[in-house]
Every structure is written in C-alpha cells, then in structure tokens.
Task: structure prediction
Amino acid sequence: MKILKFGGTSVGSVNSLLGVKKIIESVDEPVVVVVSAIGGITDKLLATAKLAVKADTLYQEAYAEIIGIHKDLIDGIFSKTGEKEIVYNQVVELLDELGNIYKGVFLIQDLSLKTSDIIVSYGERISSLIISHLIEGSKLFDARKFIKTEKQFHKHIVDFNITNRLIEEQFANLPQRSIVPGFISSNKDTGEVTNLGRGGSDYTAAIIASALNASVLEIWTDVDGFMTADPKVISNAYVLEQLSYIEAMELSNFGAKVIYPPTIFPAYHKNIPIRIRNSFKPQGLGTLITRENKKDGKAIKGISSIDDTCLITVQGLGMVGVIGVNYRIFRVLAKNGISVFMVSQASSENTTSIAVRNEFADLAVKELQGEFSLEISQGEINDIKAEKELATVAIVGENMKRTPGIAGQLFGTLGKSGISVIACAQGASETNISFVIKKKYLRKALNSIHDSFFLSQYKVLNIFLVGIGTVGASLLEQLKQQQPKLMQQNSLKIRVVGIANSKKAIFDRKGIDLSNYEQRLKNEGVDSSPEFLCKEIEEMNIFNSIFVDCTASAEVAALYKNLITNNVAVVTANKIASSSSYKDYAELKDISRKLGVKYLFETNVGAGLPIINTMNALINSGDKILKLEAVLSGTLNYIFNVLSESIPLSKAILMAKEAGYAEPDPRIDLCGLDVVRKLVILSREAGYKVEQGEVVKNLFIPEKYFDGSIEDFWKNIPQLDAQFEAQRKELDAQGKKCRFVAKMEKGKCEVGLQTVDRSHPFYELEGSNNIITITTERYNEYPMMIKGYGAGASVTAAGVFSDIISIANIR
Result:
C-alpha cells in the first residue's frame, strides 16, 4: 500500500489535475491520496478574510474570484453534464458556508484564530471533493475525523496515540483509492477545526503512512526532488538521487522548501521510504529518502539557507560561570512560542547568540530584556539587541562525519570570497555546519560553497573585461574557442559576465554570448565610466570574480585597490599600476597577499613570456636576483631588425605600426617609456625598490622629435634616416647589431641602445621577439635565459588567459 501526496501546483490547473489522475490510476496496489488546496487558494482565503475583517467590501470580489477558480476547474475536467452538476452543487454548498463565514467576519469585524482555521480548511475540503469525483473508484475521507491535535504554545500538535488509533479504524477496510484532504485536523477535546501549519499536507501523508505501515510515501510536487542548492540562485544545481532521513531533515529545516520538515519523523520512525517526485515529469525518479547514507565520495550533499534571519545576542561578563542563563533564555522564548533554529555560544559562556525569524525578533528582544532586566541594570549583561538583514546557511551531509578539513575548507572559501561569518554552529553529529552572514552576501556564499565542494559540475570563473581593442578582442576570441575544451577536460567554466569599452558596458550574471558581444554592447550597452564599472561589479557581488584590464588607462588602473579589497581578483595587461609609485605598487601587492586575492600582471613584461612567474619561483625558493639584462620592446627590436639599405628608419617605424607592434602613436615606444616601465616592474619583482625617475635613459631619438603633433613627427622623422643608415652600415661591417637594452644590476637601472656582436645572446634576436637573462646567486656563471614572442595582440592575450587559468588552479 502506497501513500501519495499532491501539492497545490500539482492540482492547480485542468491539465495538472488530469496528469494527477493518470498517476493515481496507474498504481495497481491500494493507495491513499492526500491532496493540498488548489495552488494559491490558501493565500486567497486568508487575504479575503483580512479584507472582510477590515469591513472592506472588496472581500466580496475576492470571494467571487475563489468561486470562479473552482467553477472553471470543474468545467474543465468534467465533460458529462450530470456529473459536472453533481460536483458543482456539492462544491457550491461548501462555498456558501464559506461565504456566510466571510459575511460574519465582515459584520462583526473580528477574525479569531479559530475562525481563521475554519476558513483555510475549505481549500483542502473543496479540492479533495473535486478530486474524489475525478478519480475512478475512489472514496473520500474527512481528515478532521482522525487527525487529532492539542494546543501547545499557540500551535496545534498532533496527538499520535489517538490519531494512529483512529486512522487504523477509518482505514480498516482499505478501498483501492482513498482521497484525503491534507493540512486540516481537529482538536482532540473540542472537535474544533485546526490545521498542521503551512505545508501540513506533507505531514498528513506521513502520519497516515506511519499509522498504516505503508510501503512508500511519495510526495508529488512541482520540483524534480531535493537539489544540491536552490536552482534559482545556483543555475547548475542538480537533483540528489538519494538522501538519508537526517540529511533531508537538516536541509528542510534550513529552507529547502521541498518537504515540510515534520513530515520526515513519522516515516523515519517506521522506516518508510520517502520519494520526492515531480508531477509534471512523472517519468523522473526524483529523490529517495531512506535510513541509508549513500557513500558517493562527496563530503556534503547539499546547501540550504534561510534569508529571513535575525540574530539576537545575550552577552555580558556576568554570565560567566552562572548556571541557568541558557535555561532562562530558552524558557522565556518557548513561553512566547518563539522557535530558535540556530544557537551559537562562546566557550567562555559570556555570549549566547540565537537565530530566529524576523517576525519574532522584536517580541524575543522585549521578553529577554524583561527576563534579564535586573542583570542589565547592574551591568552584568549588556543591552539585548537584534541584528537583522541576515541569512543563515547550512551545509549538510552525513559523509562529513570524521572527515578532517571540512570546516577549514568552508570558512576558507568564505574568506576568499570576502564574506565574514557572524556566528556559526556545528553539532557533535557532524552532519550540519550552520553559519550566519549578511543577507547581501547570500548568493555569493551559496555559489562559492557549491563550487568549492564540487557540488557543481564545473568550477566557475566570472570575468569582467575592460578594453576590447586588439588584445581584449583577441582574448575574447580565445576564450570562446577554449570554453568547450576547458569544460570537458578541466571541468572549468569561464563565464564572461561583464564587458566594457571606453564608453559602454554590458553586464549579465548568467554570462555573455561571446559570438555577438559587440552587437549587444552597441544595442544594450549602458553609459560607462571607471567609477560606474567598480560600483556595478561590487553590487553584482559575484563569487570567483576576476577583473581583466586590457586597457592602457590610468583611471582603470586606479580601480585595482578597491576591487582587490572587495575580493575581486585582478589580471591586467596594463602596466600603469605596477610601474607607478613604489608605494602604490607595494600597497596593491600587500593587500593582495593579506586577503589572498590574486593580482597578476605577467603580460606587463614580455607579453606571454613567463618572466615574472619564473622570477617569483626563483625568489620563493630562496634564490636572489642580482642582475637583469633584457630586450623588452618587441616594437624596437622589430624596427632594428628590419632596418636595411632599402628600409630606412622612418619606414621601419611605419612598418612596425602597420604590423600592430607599435602604438598608433609610435612615439610612446620610441621614447623608451614602455621599456622603462617594464624594467621598473621587473626590478620591483626582483626585490628592489625602484622608481621610474631613477632609471637612466639613453635614448636614440632626440627629444625634439617628440614635440608637436603626430603629423609633425611623421614629417620630421625622415631627417634621421641617413644617420641611422650610416650607423647600420658601420655596425654591419663589424658584424654587430643595435639592440635597445634594459639593465638592472643590484637595483641600479638603465635603458638605451647597445651594440652586440655575434657572441652575444641578443644578436640573433629576430622579429619582435623579447629576451631576458637573469643572473642570480644560483644562476651566476650561466644566467637563466627566457626568449620568445614579446609583442602582438594574440600572444599578449594568451598571457592574460594564462593568468586567468592560474587563478582556477588547474593543470
């Protein structure tokens, strides 16, 4: 024998009711079917009562709407005129009773709890009546005759001794199909109508299942089962195939609105399996809940949360060593019917924090202040206050038992996301770790934890990209091409959630389609500025966020400190921040290190070459860098490599610009500023305190050529062609070449032209390649050398991509 329960959405429309009919009539063995009120009706019943008690004549319209909903349902599911008329007459009889009650409430303007309970009972009474006529061979039972309650602290509590006996009597001769209204009950002494609370239809089904020793309890609803987290918050949450009773209870108590929490105990008591199924997808198996704890290799099964949390703290040195303080706290709360769902106490006994729903916060504070008024007046206990706008999160799983590191991983994950824990609690059973945070961080916390504990199919990185010029556009193309491979091979999902240029920006928490981002930016982009970008990123508050800067903007670079402070990692190809004042550079590095938030700028020097990472590895392993020599400008190296009898200096510069190596204004490259910035960055990463102004510059283009407009530059630069051709011929005859070299030796820096012969490692440097030799205490006689492409949008973008991947920590 099975017990089937159908929720409000499952019986809320003609099509859904016809689906329920198929499910019930497909079961061969006897079934008891427990049904909720039609979806939304309970709320409408209460709303109408509130209008009536205010003497608002609009209650009549609301009441007429309730009548219309049921009439339309009857018209839709019953085709035979005679049958339809019978059902309609019986339903109208109940609706007339309801109407008279509303009229009475309207006239006397009073709505007692007793009357309210009677009013809401009509939802299940009417729905069960309709369904009993819809299901062939079914018999309707009245739950008020066998679900008996008694009153405790303003709540109706089931008296199981009486209830179980009455159920056994009522169902002694079990029909093939029994229909029972859920939720409703009656007082064991007075017979007055009561109820089991919102969601109580689940409880009704479990009570009957336990009393009749059912083979299974099936809860049919509008979701596929318990999920690893709320799918409205975490898009890649998935259905849990199996849970233990304890896991299901913990998840339900902390906000997983799949099953009414009290439902689990009656089934657990008789070891009756519970299966959660979707009435709109009856082919699905849903979630099975049993005593068995499924060992699936995952420490936690799911994450649940309550976004309606208030934390009340009783604190004072006068509590230390005093017996009975907690007894008094919970006694006064219980006396006032206030439920506490989390408790956190300091081992020193001077602080006890309790979490309650916001609706009970003010009452709880008032009663606790009254209880401890003497201690507060004497200064033994501080004034008791409520902290609101909070959320409670729980991670649940029986596999957490005796598994070291779970709490460390949890709080480490929250810390990396910049989320502070206000209070926490863990029982000795180790099946639940609960903690309280600010409500505004709830979405970020849930996503971070879900990702960290591998409940997600993929690890997710959320990218905000600023700058879609040659490097930024190339990076987006590389991301688009690599996304499928990274998801398949590395379980890494890189989601671009923000894209901005100098004027417009678009943001999409779910991810921007990289195949049409330019069109979206043009059509949907909002006016943007660096300050706007920073504000929007902070307000989106997305976990695993990375700000990628592919601009050369000082204003954008100025955002890094604020972003890192808000736990947004920064990956940048922009040299300005790391080459600005040493104080600012050191501050960014310090904040990054203290918060554990990445600040990566490998592409500031050598495009995609692993120069900075290599230097850091040397230093971190105990080596000391003594000297650096490098050709760091792909643009200048290209120019000196293409100089020939037929290609003078002016033409070589133009070729570098057309090839995309030089800036649109090549004077930026020719003045050596770019190389100076790179050398400053390398010197700082090598451990030396260097400012740009301390670098000695031996430039090869006279200062006067940098004055005036860009047109003036192109007009005047051919004046140097003859000089450089003469120099080139002389060096060529000597077997030498010119290289623009950056040097650092024990903190002393200089840049300038240098002639090198065939024996020098810089001599054969081709095209726009870069090269660096690193002399250290270990690599002294034979310096380490790194050489390769040092310019170009694609290699620079690849370097930025590599920094992004390093944050994901995949191999």
About this structure: The chain has a mean pLDDT of 92. Residues 81-108 form the longest helix (28 residues). DSSP finds 29 helices and 31 strands in the chain. Residues 67 and 95 are 7 Å apart (CA to CA).
